[in-house]
Amino acid sequence: RFYRIISNDRPQEQPAGVSAAESAAALKQSQMLLESTRQTALYTLTLCRNVIAILELTRLRKSRVGLLYWIEFWDQYYGRRFGRALAAQITYALGRVDGLFRAVASELHALTQRVVDAVTEATTETEILQLLERMEDEVGVRRRRRRKKAQSILNKMRASLEAIPVRVNDELLDDLKRGVFALDIYCDYYPGDPINQDPPPDWTD
């Protein structure tokens, strides 16, 4: 591969006045820049892979703790029978959200590994940058698709809760997203917010 790179990058005709030594030095510098770009890209991809894992593990941990707290609150405030009816609807939705986020996290890991392999084999800086740009676009597509599906799941959960009946306004739904699902109001990861352990006013109105 090294010799193929040299062959592809070497000009067909050397400009007049450029010595073989100068040409070799320019080629060496080009190769050094390529390797620097490659190593930077691989480091960035490693960070991406770590962030994907950390975000998903954090979401799982926070959602489990949040769910247990809210179930305890519902049981105390509404009684076990009514509280369990609420918990059943939310637990079902949480299972679907978990499956969705795990699947997308797995896709993103696989995508990152494919880009790592491609960057390792890339022969020009331009190729490496294009690989990263395409990956960013693909990640954006998956995030938007995941967000749309998660919103649909939670909207169906909201309708199920209101059929019990429990009034679920926008503020309460946002509290459930953060406190039980560890998501922000748009249904993306929300790992930085402390677990919402104080029941929102709407539950006690």
Task: Write a concise synopsis of the structure shown.
The protein has 205 residues and is mainly alpha-helical. The chain has one domain (30-181).
Q: How confident is the prediction overall: mean pLDDT?
A: 85
Question: What structural class do the secondary elements suggest?
Answer: mainly alpha
Taken in chain order, the helices and strands follow as HHHHHH
Query: What would you call the shape?
Result: rod-shaped
Helix content: over 70%
Alpha carbon gap, first and last residue: 70 Å
Low-confidence stretches: 1-14, 193-205
Radius of gyration over C-alpha positions, nearest whole angstrom: 26 Å
Whole-number count of domains: 1
Largest β-sheet summary: none
Approximately how much beta-strand content do the residues carry?
A: under 5%
Number of helices in the DSSP assignment: 6
Beta strands, count: 0
Task: List its salient traits.
single chain; 205 residues; mainly alpha; disordered N terminus; disordered C terminus
Give a description of the structure.
With 205 residues, the chain is an all-alpha fold. The protein has one domain (30-181). It contains six helices and no strands. It has helices at residues 2-9, 20-78, 80-121, 125-162, 170-179, 201-204. The longest helix has 59 residues, at 20-78. The model is unreliable at 1-14 and 193-205 (pLDDT under 50).
Outline the secondary-structure elements.
Layout: H1 2-9, H2 20-78, H3 80-121, H4 125-162, H5 170-179, H6 201-204
Helix pairs in contact: 2-3, 2-4, 3-4
